[in-house]
Amino acid sequence: MAPFYNPSAFDSSPLISGLAADRMTTAPHPIRIAIVFDGREFNCQPVGLPFSLEGHPPVDIVLFGAQSEAGPAASLLPELHPEGFDLVLDGRFMAGGLPDLAPEQAPNLLSGPAADFLQGLVCQLQELRQKQEINAGIIMSATDGLVTINEDHVIIGYNHGAEQMFGYTRREALGQDLKLIVPPPFTELHGGFVKRYVATREAHVLGRQRRLNARRRDGTEFPLSISFSVAEIRGNLYFTAIMRDITEYVAMEERVLQTERLAAVGNTVAHIAHEIKNPLLIIGGFARQLIKSPGLDDGARQKLSIIAEEVSSLENLIAEMRDFVRRPPAQKRPGQIAGVIQGALELFQDTFKEHNIQVRQVEAAALPSVTFDPRQVHQVLVNLFKNALEAMPGGGEITISSQVKGDKVEISVTDTGAGLSPEASANIFRPYFTTKEKGTGLGLAICQSIMEEHGGCIFADSPPGRGATFTMQLPLEEASQEAGPMSAPEGVS
Ligand code: ADP
């Protein structure tokens, strides 16, 4: 409720809290003052300002009076809408007292010392209002969400940052229980904290950063970093939470954790691969030697060639695993990607012919120079060609198209094989996912990690009955004008 103002207590706090809470917005609005008198009957009479206030927002003054027999003026207070006025003044205390005027002369009540007093008061009130509007503006416009609740868990403060974060407007959120934005079990936890604080005044979470899950208007939950503060104002407790959406931070944390886990797995894999490599080399070598031994019966020769075959697929698996966990960092330099495509194609030329696979190349225009590691991009292409080959056991067509698309260079490899099942589509880039009897499931995972290291990406498309298309994109930003022509990496063309 607006305070019943006593001028002798001007410097005490009631004046501030007298500014109606709901008016704490940055939008200008008139200052409204009610003056209540004893012994006269001036009900709800608005009066003009007895002084001029240039450049100030408007001030509305309303006079209220009560006849002596109706009781003291203070009894009028409950009838006044507390939110309707910034200040309610007790006319008896106004400086210099009040001239003895008839009710119809009410406006003249505010003259002489009373007017001077009022003018000083209005100026101070406006200064306070300005400060309050600045504070409210800062709070309202903060990008962090600021939500204040009272002891009953009802939201009484909700800024613009909170609107953005939760999707509820201020109007919708004010007056609601906090559970609107804080789902279980966090509502209960928070409720417990508030209850405990009210009972004991002991705060365990004040000033500390906490994490909890919050809920948006659309029902999705997201992680928040939150710090609490509590203010006791005139015996009432107000709990304010400063909230920050940490979805991206948590995702990054998860990635770091994943990287650490992978690094640990990587070390183990590299170690095991190292230990297995040499014995495999010996087994495979001996098997191949023994196959050539004279006098070996067919059964034994067949068994030996199975051993040699199994050993070489194990060697292949180990090489890919090592590559996946211990690939050296990309050595990027500016160059022409077309040369690398040709180099990889030449490698497959004979195999494609043998398998009855036609090669078609579509190049929209000459590709500009891009910055990339030619060995690694060669590796990606080789893997895509190998997969296309394996997807077309009965022959078919492979199309390699390249073009500039926006700020990227795009290279697609399309085959006319069986395409990808929905399950495969969802998993092909996951390490160790394979549908092949002797597959490692690492080829595409390696391709993806290479493309990511290049700031690019790789994705697959497989319209029903039309084979599969794998598209790799490299960013053009790093394109260099000084680049000379670059052909396939040494030793691979
Ligand atoms: P691998 O070839 O060892 O299985 P990859 O990571 O290269 O490992 O491929 C993973 C899986 O993706 C393959 O087992 C296959 O199911 C699917 N796949 C990849 N390329 C194609 C393609 N061109 N057509 C159909 N399926 C494919």
Describe this entry's structure for a reader.
The N and C termini lie far apart (86 Å). The longest helix has 45 residues, at 247-291. The chain has four domains: 8-140, no CATH class; 145-245, 2-Layer Sandwich (Beta-Lactamase), CATH 3.30.450.20; 249-325, Helix Hairpins (Orthogonal Bundle), CATH 1.10.287; 333-475, 2-Layer Sandwich (Heat Shock Protein 90), CATH 3.30.565. By secondary structure, the chain is of the alpha+beta class. It is 38% helix and 22% strand. Helix 6 runs antiparallel to helix 7 and helix 9 (374-391) packs antiparallel against helix 11 (443-453). It has a five-stranded mixed β-sheet with strand order 1-5-2-4-3. Strands 7-6-10-9-8 form a five-stranded antiparallel β-sheet, with helices on both faces. Strands 12-14-15-17-16 form a five-stranded mixed β-sheet, with helices on one face. Mean pLDDT is 79; it is low at 1-27 and 478-493. The chain has helices at residues 14-18, 112-141, 160-166, 170-173, 186-200, 247-291, 298-325, 337-354, 374-391, 422-427, 443-453, and strands spanning 4-5, 31-38, 45-47, 59-66, 87-90, 145-150, 155-158, 209-215, 221-233, 236-245, 333-335, 357-363, 370-372, 396-405, 408-415, 457-461, 469-475. The site of adenosine-5'-diphosphate (ADP) has 22 residues, from helix 9 and helix 11.
